[in-house]
């Protein structure tokens, strides 16, 4: 099969399409002929040798895909050859075929093209597990997502609105904020020209928001704590703005704050399977009902993975970027 290989750690130009061995299918896995895969920030870190794949995982990039099942392992009972699916991966999506544990596979949602279904597994599993399973966002609460125009952000806006929350977002341009508004965001804040803490306080009567989903990390940490309400919950899933910061525990204690962080990729297969089933039960109905839609900015052929990475690093895109074998 053909796959994108990292020739040596470095910039986008190190990504090369090469012929490689087909994946070996384990008894608990299915083999998917890839229709599309989606870019994630983790791919850029792995390309730079800053985020290695978990032991035993595919060495190739790609944390999600969609496609058609070509083969099933001996222990697999739910899936059949020919099923149209999408899947959460530990790696290997930038290829013509990928093997994945059967528990990390989802039926491609009706009403969504098989290509665009590749935009859902990573964002839906990340947002559902962090914002809903662990931070317990509920109807009537307030929710702030940083990077509202990102793949995570555009999905989180739609899902939080579907769940009945009031949604705040930050983004860096009028175009991105307008897009977030059209997706359903209630309060749109330009982080380049506005103080998001002051705006959150203004919009909530000084109370703050109940839940924050953050991809920035250290740069926003103290301001996030200031933006939370009593019993507020902060979930950190990225460190684009640094990884080391100081914390004033008096703020955490006085407001009874909860601070959590997680990385989905290194979770156990059992944990990923549990999240996937939760997503199937709680997120897929929203997609089937048309309440949550794919947001795809651009499609690239697999041979142009370097160009796709350049676009992601420019942060000019809104939503997801897909690669097509």
UniProtKB/TrEMBL annotation:
Keyword field contains Metal-binding: no
Keywords: NADP, Oxidoreductase
Gene3D superfamilies: Medium-chain alcohol dehydrogenases, catalytic domain, NAD(P)-binding Rossmann-like Domain
Family annotation (SMART domains): PKS_ER (SM00829)
GO molecular function: oxidoreductase activity
UniProt xrefs under NCBIfam families: quinone_pig3
Identification of the protein by name: Enoyl reductase (ER) domain-containing protein
Species annotation: Prunus persica (Peach)
Lineage, uppermost ranks: Eukaryota, Viridiplantae, Streptophyta, Embryophyta, Tracheophyta
